[in-house]
């Protein structure tokens, strides 16, 4: 029954990864089950009035994996593919991510099954406010703190903040992170995830003896994560030769100018049609030769079908769950690719979300320089910790990152004991 409730290929993938690591850690069977299953999952219906006067009912979910180490932290996703199992997988990965980064949070994730690209701002606002109201018994700065993810942004976080403030009667900025600056959002939060992806990828390149000069990168996705990853890679002098979005993929051997492309996307809504590029088949984008490949859009895009054909030196997983376990197996047998696993690679977002929560509680503001410097310090230390653990224990970097995290969570559960 419990497997059925969360049945989904992504959740199966998260469980398979967990089981492998739990075997390595020789985790006690009782503790293993407590670590694996989410504490609670909440599903709600969200009826809203559409602009044409009709009423439509949407489905929303929130999964809180554990509150063992603190409030749960994780994004809210608006996408047609959202379902409970997907959200549960993402919540589990968030749990490991927070533990790996040593943030005082558990993992959570939420989502609403909808296509935000077909909804008006008014409809999105009503959807967000109604969902927030339905969630009020289950959230709070000490219980569950949401943030943007696919299809959501600062504006959605602002509506959530306002709905919560209206309900409680006071402004409580620490209820969500990724807010606009004038609602006590943090400097650097918007670019944190993508910047972290690029920072870790260039570190890894140095570590394998590569040089930034003349190196190239391919980025899948030009949303929050992909665009900021591309921006930082360009600022390092790395040529971003290929970029894609839902509309297709573009290529330029000499590198794509981030600022010119951003202007084009702002005007047209897509990377397609950018004059200083040619269109290429999006299916072949991931297998183009490059130093850094950064999938920053969807899950399960690197599969057993294309893993053997990747021609990158660094695989920087900006998206959550971009590599399937079958592809992982193929990649682990290749010694020419260094993987920066998602739980580490895209952890810049939750780390700066933690900074935002701390600033909100203190009613204090850090400068962007402080935020980015602290972020880079934590990312660099954690990358080294993962690399050392992987080498010492002959594990892949994904297994090492998850082993550090699961060991941490299991240790805290053990210390707290089991109630009653
Ligand atoms: P986003 O702002 O909504 O951007 C998603 C991007 O993916 C868009 O550019 C979208 O294209 C593109 N895309 C969608 N389908 C695609 C396809 N079939 N092929 C190529 N590109 C496609 O979302 P995001 O916040 O960047 O999140 C992306 C990933 O990063 C997700 O896995 C998310 O969980 C993960 N992540 C995000 C954060 C964060 O702070 N935002 C933190 C950690 C992890 P269009 O623009 O054309 O729609």
**How much strand?**
15-25%
Shape: globular
Helix content: 40-55%
Unreliable residue stretches: none
Terminal CA distance reads 24 Å
Q: From the alpha-carbon coordinates, what is the Rg to the nearest angstrom?
A: 21 Å
Order of helices and strands: HHHEEEHEHEHHEHEEHEHEEHEHHHH
The number of helical elements comes to 15
Q: Which ions, cofactors or small ligands are bound in this entry?
A: NADP nicotinamide-adenine-dinucleotide phosphate
Structural class: alpha/beta
What order do the strands of the largest sheet run in, or round the barrel if closed? 9-8-7-6-10-11-12
Biggest β-sheet description: 7 strands, mixed
> How would you state the average pLDDT, rounded?
96
Q: Write down how many β-strands occur, each being a DSSP E stretch of 2 or more residues.
A: 12
Task: Describe this entry's structure for a reader.
With 420 residues, the protein is an alpha/beta fold. It contains 15 helices and twelve strands. The protein has helices at residues 2-5, 9-25, 29-36, 84-100, 121-135, 154-168, 189-207, 224-235, 258-268, 282-285, 325-332, 342-345, 348-362, 368-393, 397-416; strands at residues 40-49, 55-64, 72-79, 106-113, 144-148, 216-220, 239-245, 248-251, 278-280, 292-295, 314-316, 338-340. The chain has a seven-stranded mixed sheet. It has a five-stranded mixed sheet with strand order 1-2-4-3-5. Helix 2 crosses helix 15 and helix 7 (189-207) packs across helix 14. The protein is globular, with a radius of gyration of 21 Å. NADP nicotinamide-adenine-dinucleotide phosphate binds next to helix 8 and strand 7.
